[in-house]
């Protein structure tokens, strides 16, 4: 197990197996970033020619390892690019630290001499290393590389309370994010709705967080009239579940409701997906993983805000009992919905959960879902969409995302889409799917809006950034990313402060 600590020490004098230093570009050429000044002094004029010989340019994402030959106490110097010195941000520091973490192998101890002159930068360095060193190896037969036993963050603020709090917060949030990543990465046959619900209950037992967990099975869901969850899950041999978490601290300053889409595998149902599109569909429960993990983190941090979380879980499969296009489902609360495409199933399970969330009378509701391919078309695979019925709430969540290093972009819910949802079906109250190809993300959000009963509500469509099918970058690994965990914790902290 790795221990993390803050220390006020000269970077050139500390003796660890690896020492990480940042390098920036500037009008004067390459410059060692703040935190590594002692290393720059130890090397003197030799450092720039050395970097030039190695072809190191200092651009963001670049990393090189150099044997120090005794110039500094640590035997290996890890140089990581931070880009333009005049445009240095905490997010760039976070990403660079993650890049360095992945480059370090077989080191028992690591020192990070990166920009950490205040609590915000301490948090960024800690975030970057904790998240960048993540690896999912549950199904690998080979032994994974050993992780360092000790990681030291070098900072002049080491003994201050705000810096220590920043490190502690980073550890809690990163642990939650990595939990969400683990759940998303687990093969779907080993993570059915029942097993997902069991995993949440097991986390509750092992966690310090004062969270209560309740699981509703398929019989109770049917008796309660949760037509969306039952309708999606009825085609699978693995029945659906609904998990409810509650955190109620004394003196809570607000009540936040979270809802997350938990489709543990999505074949598309009778509106079957093409084969290649099914390969990564274990990630369709990333929204539920995020809201559950965030709830545990909020509670472990002891934030003075009440949280009620709903995670509807189902497998969307093909069988003789599957919901058919053209079927009408009755949602929890009584609204009827005509199903036009069974591959637009996420909004159906969310509908039941959103109605339940509104009945708890929260101050605001936020749902997270890998909901639409249209959002990926619009925003790519690194930016999530955020929509809602309150512009101030949308802006507040964007701000939380910016602080967390998660990119969110606002999209509208237009009157046209609201009207379509209500008039596209000739036999039911609402039509579940847009009859046109355009504006799929807006239509899905307009559909969800029908189930929040006027409560302040925002919807995060994380279909793009929830699962990274490409190589790792910054502190983001391949596979599950844990998107939205950090944003939700920042939102809760912001609500607590207000």
Q: Overview of this structure, please?
A:
With 498 residues, the chain is α/β, with parallel strands linked by helices. It is elongated and about 80 Å long. It has helices spanning 37-43, 47-53, 90-103, 119-132, 161-185, 193-206, 218-224, 227-233, 275-278, 286-301, 346-359, 373-379, 391-404, 415-423, 440-449, 485-497; strands at 3-7, 18-25, 31-32, 63-67, 76-84, 109-113, 150-154, 212-216, 241-247, 255-260, 262-266, 306-316, 328-330, 336-338, 364-369, 384-388, 408-410, 430-431, 457-461, 467-468, 479-480. The protein contains 16 helices and 21 strands. The model has no long low-confidence stretch (mean pLDDT 97).
Would you spell out the secondary-structure blueprint of this structure?
Blueprint: E1 3-7, E2 18-25, E3 31-32, H1 37-43, H2 47-53, E4 63-67, E5 76-84, H3 90-103, E6 109-113, H4 119-132, E7 150-154, H5 161-185, H6 193-206, E8 212-216, H7 218-224, H8 227-233, E9 241-247, E10 255-260, E11 262-266, H9 275-278, H10 286-301, E12 306-316, E13 328-330, E14 336-338, H11 346-359, E15 364-369, H12 373-379, E16 384-388, H13 391-404, E17 408-410, H14 415-423, E18 430-431, H15 440-449, E19 457-461, E20 467-468, E21 479-480, H16 485-497
Parallel strand pairs: 1-7, 2-5, 2-6, 6-7, 10-12, 10-15, 11-12, 14-18, 15-19, 16-17
Antiparallel strand pairs: 2-3, 4-5, 8-9, 9-12, 13-14, 16-19, 20-21
Helix pairs in contact: 3-4, 4-5, 5-10, 8-11, 10-16, 13-16, 14-15
């Amino acid at each position: 197990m790795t221990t993390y600590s803050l220390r006020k020490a000269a970077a050139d004098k500390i003796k660890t197996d690896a020492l990480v230093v940042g390098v920036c570009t500037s009008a004067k050429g390459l410059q060692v970033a703040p935190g590594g000044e002692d290393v720059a002094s130890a090397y003197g004029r030799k450092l720039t020619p050395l970097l030039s010989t190695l072809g190191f340019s200092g651009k963001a994402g670049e990393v090189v390892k150099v044997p120090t030959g005794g110039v500094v106490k640590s035997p290996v110097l890890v140089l990581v690019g931070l880009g333009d010195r005049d445009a240095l941000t905490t997010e760039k520091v976070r990403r660079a630290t993650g890049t360095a973490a992945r480059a370090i192998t077989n080191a028992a101890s690591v020192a990070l001499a990166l920009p950490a002159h205040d609590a915000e930068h301490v948090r960024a360095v800690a975030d970057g290393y904790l998240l960048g060193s993540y690896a999912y190896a549950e199904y690998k037969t080979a032994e994974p590389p050993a992780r360092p036993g000790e990681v030291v963050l070098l900072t002049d603020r080491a003994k201050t309370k705000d810096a220590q709090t920043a490190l502690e917060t980073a550890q809690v949030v990163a642990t939650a994010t990595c939990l969400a990543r683990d759940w998303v990465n687990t093969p779907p046959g080993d993570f059915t709705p029942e097993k997902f619900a069991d995993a949440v209950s097991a986390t509750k037992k092992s966690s310090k967080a004062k969270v209560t967990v309740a699981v509703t099975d398929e019989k109770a869901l049917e008796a309660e009239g949760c037509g969306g969850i039952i309708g999606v899950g009825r085609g699978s041999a693995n029945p659906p579940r609904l998990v409810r978490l509650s955190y109620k601290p004394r003196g809570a300053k607000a009540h936040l409701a979270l809802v997350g889409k938990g489709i543990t595998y999505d074949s598309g149902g009778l509106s079957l997906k093409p084969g290649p599109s099914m390969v990564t569909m274990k990630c369709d429960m990333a929204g539920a993983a995020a809201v559950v993990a965030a709830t545990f983190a909020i509670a472990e941090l002891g934030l003075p805000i009440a949280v009620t979380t709903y995670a509807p879980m189902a497998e969307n499969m093909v069988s003789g009992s599957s919901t058919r296009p053209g079927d009408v489902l009755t949602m929890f609360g009584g609204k009827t919905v005509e199903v036009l495409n069974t591959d637009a199933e996420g909004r159906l399970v969310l509908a039941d959960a959103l109605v339940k969330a509104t009945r708890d009378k929260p101050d605001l509701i936020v749902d997270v879902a890998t909901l639409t391919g249209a959002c990926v078309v619009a925003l790519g695979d690194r930016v999530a969409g955020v929509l809602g019925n309150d512009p101030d709430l949308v802006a507040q969540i964007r701000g939380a995302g910016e602080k967390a290093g998660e990119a969110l972009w606002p999209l509208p819910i237009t009157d046209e889409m609201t009207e379509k949802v209500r008039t596209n079906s000739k036999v039911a109250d609402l039509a579940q799917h847009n009859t046109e190809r355009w504006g799929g993300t807006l239509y899905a959000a307009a559909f969800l809006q029908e189930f929040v009963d006027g409560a302040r509500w925002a919807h995060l469509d994380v279909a793009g950034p929830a699962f990274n099918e490409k190589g790792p970058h910054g502190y983001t690994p391949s596979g599950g990313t844990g998107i939205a965990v950090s944003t939700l914790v920042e939102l809760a902290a912001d609500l607590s402060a207000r």
